[in-house]
Task: structure prediction
Amino acid sequence: MLLTFEKMGAWRWGLGLICALVALFLLLPIVFIIALSFGDSRWLIFPPPGWTLRWYEELFADPRWIESALTSAKIGLIVTVFSVALGLLASIGLVRGRFKGKAVLRTFFLTPMVLPVVILAVALYALFLRIGLSGTLVGFVIAHVVIALPFSIIAISGALETFDPAIEDAAVVCGASPWEARLRVTLPAISHGLFSAAIFSFLISWDEVVIAIFMASPTLQTLPVRIWGTLRQDLTPVIAAASTLLVALTILLMLAAALLRKGKKA
Amino acid sequence: MSSTFALARPRMRKGTGMILPALVLLLAFFVVPVALLLSRSVTEPELGLQNYRELLASGTYAKIFFNTFLVAGLVTLITALLAFPVAWALVIMPRLLAGLLFAIVLLSMWTNLLARTYAWMVLLQQTGLINRTLMQFGLTSEPIPLVNNLTGVTIGMVYIMLPFMVLPIYGVIRKIDPAILQAAALCGATRLQALGRVLLPLAVPGIASGALMVFVMSLGYFVTPALLGGTSNMMLAEMIAQQVQSLVNWGLGGAAAFILLVVTLSLYALQLRLIGEPKGTA
Amino acid sequence: MTAPYLHFQAVRKTYGDVVAADRVDLEVPKGEFMTFLGPSGSGKSTTLYILAGFQEPTSGDIQLGGRSILPVPSHKRNIGMVFQRYTLFPHLSVRENVAFPLRVRRQSQAEITQKVGRALELVRLQEFEERMPAQLSGGQQQRVALARALVYDPPVLLMDEPLSALDKKLREEIQLEIRRIHQETGVTILYVTHDQEEALRLSDRIAVFNAGRIEQVGSGQHLYDQPATRFVADFIGDSAFLSAEIESVQGGQAAMRFPDGTRLGAVPLHGAGAPGQKAELLLRPERIGLSETGSGETAALEVTITDVTFLGSSTDVRAETAWGEGLFVRLPFSDPLSQSVRRGQRLWVSWEANGAHLFAA
Result:
């Protein structure tokens, strides 16, 4: 009866306690940075002796923070477009195509996901130094598309696999041109896959640190690089303020995704 | 590209056209650069295996390998111990509680990596919350060094890896029919016996899949060890970055990368063989 | 009947406002094959789950061998159960599945080997010992589940629609197996099903559940011949109901009138009926006959034939009364009319007055 909560007796409390502790462990850092970002102690004393918005003011007063956030957003959006487009094409080929070595190719497409990022970062760093892409926007985008593509392919091909191509044939039989059928039947049917591919791709680029550290130049820095650089100098509460904004962004995205799922079910 | 993929599906037999853009991208910016890096391990500073000899012979590097495997192993073990009860609870708890717990797991997973790591740096420092709480309750008289060492790295990594362990175990337990556990109870099994003889064995595929994923990710992890670890307790990923960036020793960095790559891909192959493709859990 | 072996006493289970089981009273003697029959949601499974310990009753008691089992947790009740879904432990072989109850009881290996062998022999699956559940068919899995439930000699064996996932032919085959096993082991069985044919085929007695209550308990024959309520009459066997009005009541029998004015006297009446009250007359299709003239019969009604279906051993004839209600008659092959009856014909249905039943609305 271990899968029936009501019949677990005292074990319920044991399990509940472990979960409460793990939840505490998972929430602690998040709650902690949010509190620190509003605390007026430069030395990060907790609980803070008083409350202030000073760190947010400092954050917004420094144009370099804004600039790096904009850079991150720009790179993230471009990466999203390419990752979803390439992912869609590759997924169609992988799901519907019939050719030898399809399974091997699929595994190959997913490899960047398992390879330690540091290897790719170092390898691309060397290559980009040679071909002059180091420290450029193009370099950033290429590198991030490489690591975002597997997630895009998983999300889109997952959606495509559950969509019966016979429905598309049915649309054509009903009189739609093949392209019309794709646009009006297939694309809407896999839109949730495209959407999660887009979210994954953006977040991967937005949060990516390792490649960014190698790729960045003094004039082109993403937000993670900026945080990384500051972190290595000192643990100023300004980072807490920046982090809090990032947490808020995460919560917003999660809520949006949850709402979208709910809307889909209704 | 003008061939339809609807009615003309048979013509897709050679339909690699769709795949071409992604394939070209990965060949040019994934396979080629990695291959170039690896080739440098046997060509720099001169042709030969001297880099590998150095890596395997030196005590410094042996310690780095040891640290890496030790931390990855510890992180895998601890996350498995924590994740099993959490995944189990997620399956059986009342909807609202389970939803809340799930949201917390996802929030911790999706929160910016550096934000999380920063929080742990502050929490774990000498004058940090953890140490002051421990001292307040008289559990220790002096601050325990929790950061800039492997303890800090392990704590930070457990935090990051926990969701990657919870999700696959959750996926497996969710598919177990509760009636099987009812049958075990009617057969006379106590809760402990049902746990040990039925629930745990049935959850093994999820635990194994999560463990492999967490172990592989931990082996090559860079950010957390770099920020929470000390310079005297380096791990492999950090060492590769350092060789290349600070010491400009591409040969040795490439050799270390090659070893990491071989270990990672072998474990990935093992996972594919045993469990199948990883699901999108980023 | 000796002192009840298994005794349900006013068992009641509610979920908020929903009553799942309401005052279930039942006595089951040792060794009986008792079936709970009823539509889904009628409380039969709930009653079984309470006995198994998966649910607690809101009130009432269940006694086994004179002692209440409610304070005893499931794993100590020593009850055997075969579930509707396949519940073999997927990671254990057939042998280890059957051995499981003995292992958790810490019995010796010698004992385990012997008892497992015997149990598998009982369900005739000895040669499948080494197989994993996934390598078995559905019927085989349920037979292994049966062996697992019997291996520790439980005082009661519960079966919750164990054959519902199987196709008809296999189901009948395993029903025979279950009967044989009941005879060989003498175990008391509580069997839940919504299939009346299965209930009739297997049981010593049947408890008919409806809306959380037991409507009637008795042998299949008894339920068929003497249904206590319209629900039982409808659920057991084939039936047609014609509307009627009660004219007078005397000693459990009533005189009645059909809507067209046809009168019948001395029909057995069920339920409290008063003159002037609406009622329904039960007619069993195999207990009524067709003839070209209505004369000489105690009860007869003129009808129009609307459909004739030849079924080999019998012919089903659909007919309509003068006021437009439908009924059907099952003519045996031996009845000469079964060859000649045609649609649109006007014929008489007839029956023995005491063979029909009137249910007060």
